Amino acid sequence: MIEAGIIGGAGYTAGELIRILLNHPEVNLNFVFSTSQPGKPLYSIHQDLIGETEIEFTNGINIEVDVVFLCLGHGNSKKFLAENQFSETTKIVDLSTDFRQKSDEHSFVYGLPELNKEAIKNANFLANPGCFATAISLAILPLSKNGLLKDEIHVNAVTGATGAGTSLSQTTHYTWRDNNFSAYKSFEHQHLDEIGQSLKQLQPDHDSEINFIPNRGNFSRGIHATAYTKYVGTLEEAKEFYHNFYENSAFTFLTDEELHLKQVVNTNKCILRLQKFGNKLLVTSVIDNLLKGASGQAVQNMNLMFGLEERMGLKLKANYF
């Protein structure tokens, strides 16, 4: 059994991670670290877990576990690892932005399985991608693989309220969020850097702008993204190289049908739809921001890192109705 620990156990992504790991056939959840909830049962915060586990939050860590998931606020993972050292054999999976940009200062592998599967299999330190970055990168990476990103890319995407985390702010209160819709961080969202890095990995000469407008939706979870750019080929050609790019992907699928969030919420799937309008290719992408955009993808990466079947523990079913 893989002994796993979680650092930062009270948030939304940690809750999803706990649920998955408790039911993973090859994992024992060794500890869940929280500075705000030590001594309390997990179900005091993640209330659906009552009757599922008696594990309590702890303010101590086991440095000998096989894998540690860092579910900390952005900027805090670097600080935590600087102050706490695990064994040489412990694998680290970080769910923050701290290590996503390639750097000589660290040896973290960027954990988008559809892009870096072989590197992930050999990784000891893994930077889990951001939720918007996952949805958008999966929508356009096949174009970069074929050297076809020659013009500006336009992206409009909407995420649910859980994308903002559990900390309260003006825009997370129910009275503000309900029956409301808004854009934020237009053209300067923090996930743009990792998207650009992934595109350049496949198309080194890529230098076109990514015009990204993120939006807040009045629903709990999920990301619906549309991306379009100029494209000179046929729709059938595009479908063929998208199929080729994702033919060995465990969780990314193509469809010709209209997409909506209920197809992917509570699953680790990304579903894509291609359409051509004049000289533009439109790609629609849908994911669950807490699963394929965070904790589900983290476990998918863990499976690869430990030589397990990629879908193990992640055969989750959408609540379609």
Automatic annotation (TrEMBL):
GO terms for biological process: L-arginine biosynthetic process. It holds the Pfam family Semialdhyde_dh. The keyword tRNA processing does not apply. One of its GO terms (molecular function) is NADP+ binding. SUPFAM superfamilies: Glyceraldehyde-3-phosphate dehydrogenase-like, C-terminal domain (SSF55347), NAD(P)-binding Rossmann-fold domains (SSF51735). Signal peptide: none annotated. It is found in: Cytoplasm. Transmembrane segments: none annotated. One of its GO terms (cellular component) is cytoplasm. The active site is at 131. Keywords: Amino-acid biosynthesis, Arginine biosynthesis, Cytoplasm, NADP, Oxidoreductase. InterPro entries: AGPR, AGPR_AS, AGPR_dimerisation_dom, AGPR_type-1, NAD(P)-bd_dom_sf, Semialdehyde_DH_NAD-bd. Residues 3-123 form the Semialdehyde dehydrogenase NAD-binding domain. PROSITE patterns: ARGC. Its main location: cytoplasm. It is an enzyme of class 1 (oxidoreductase). It catalyses: N-acetyl-L-glutamate 5-semialdehyde + phosphate + NADP(+) = N-acetyl-L-glutamyl 5-phosphate + NADPH + H(+). Pathway: Amino-acid biosynthesis; L-arginine biosynthesis; N(2)-acetyl-L-ornithine from L-glutamate: step 3/4. The keyword NADP applies. Its EC number is 1.2.1.38. Catalyzes the NADPH-dependent reduction of N-acetyl-5-glutamyl phosphate to yield N-acetyl-L-glutamate 5-semialdehyde. HAMAP family: ArgC_type1. Belongs to the NAGSA dehydrogenase family. Type 1 subfamily. This is N-acetyl-gamma-glutamyl-phosphate reductase. The lineage of its organism: Bacteria, Pseudomonadati, Bacteroidota, Flavobacteriia, Flavobacteriales. The gene is argC.
